[in-house]
Amino acid sequence: MPATSALAYTADIAEATRPIYERVKRVIPAVEWPFHAPLVHEINRLKRERNAVILAHNYQTPEIFHGVADIVGDSLALAAKATQTDADVIVLAGVHFMAETAKLLNPAKTVLIPDTGAGCSLAESITAADVRLLRERYPGVPVVAYVNTSAEVKAEVDICCTSGNAVEVVESLGTPRVIMLPDEYLAKYVATQTSVEIIAWKGHCEVHERFTGDEIREFRGRFDELVVIAHPECPPDVLEAADFVGSTARMVDFVADRRPPRVLMVTECSMSDNVAAASPETEFVRPCNLCPHMKKITLANILESLRTLEPQVSIAPEVAERARRSVERMLAVKPR
């Protein structure tokens, strides 16, 4: 069990964490902060002692995202920035495939995932054997894997992509047809943005697939001046009902640049909280779907992971070399 019981909320900790709470007070009630603050304070102290950095995905809760993270963003940002740190230890506050990606790009560093059960429905929807069968069925057709896949799957494909660079990656291959896996809805969205024929796999994100177009239209009827922005992992009827479709990074930029008075962000709950903390002039309508895997990462297990330097992420060398090549090819694709 994490040894957190000895951590008390003192006047010194209240003062030391006051600047952090100022950033999150719109989304974390004051009554909750005394429970978070001692953990936040101890994690930030232990990071310095361990020469560690915490990488946090946009779907992490605000006390993690704003309280202890050093690097934040979507999958592409975390993958790119993971290569730039000189820390000895990387703690991935996200899901397992993200920790694997960080390890692929930092093979000499200690990479920790605070809960090995933090998985992903997309990553679990396809195996390396499935990719080999697809290659037999479509000989010569290049395979693009969403980063939401295991290292074993990445090792079998030609190149990786994220929701933010999927179109650029597909077009960089210079072929008339591409296999894109595992997210069917992302593949269908990419197909509307390019002339390349997309052969899709039928994997879905268990968070985004629950949204519906009818739900979006219902919210429009209840809220005036509502701007709807949606992630391309959502079903096609949701994307058709949205005003803007983009990756998590592009959704964040949309709110920062456009400053809509009222926005519905069709993605995981905590992302709305994290953007709302930095956008006080925007009202956020929340049709909330939580990712059960992301929520397995907590302040308590981040602290325990830093204390014990466990659980560590390891990848078989013969898999890592091939998977790393697919990720590095993605990072080399120039954005539009």
Automatic annotation (TrEMBL):
Pathway: Cofactor biosynthesis; NAD(+) biosynthesis; quinolinate from iminoaspartate: step 1/1. Transmembrane segments: none annotated. One of its GO terms (molecular function) is transferase activity. The keyword Cell division does not apply. It catalyses: iminosuccinate + dihydroxyacetone phosphate = quinolinate + phosphate + 2 H2O + H(+). Its main location: cytoplasm. The keyword Oxidoreductase does not apply. Its cofactor is [4Fe-4S] cluster. Its EC number is 2.5.1.72. [4Fe-4S] cluster binds at residues 120, 205, 291. Keywords: 4Fe-4S, Cytoplasm, Iron, Iron-sulfur, Metal-binding, Pyridine nucleotide biosynthesis, Transferase. It is found in: Cytoplasm. Binds 1 [4Fe-4S] cluster per subunit. Pfam families: NadA. Belongs to the quinolinate synthase family. Type 2 subfamily. Catalyzes the condensation of iminoaspartate with dihydroxyacetone phosphate to form quinolinate. NCBIfam families: nadA, PRK09375.1-2, PRK09375.1-4. This is Quinolinate synthase. It comes from Azospirillum rugosum. The gene is nadA.
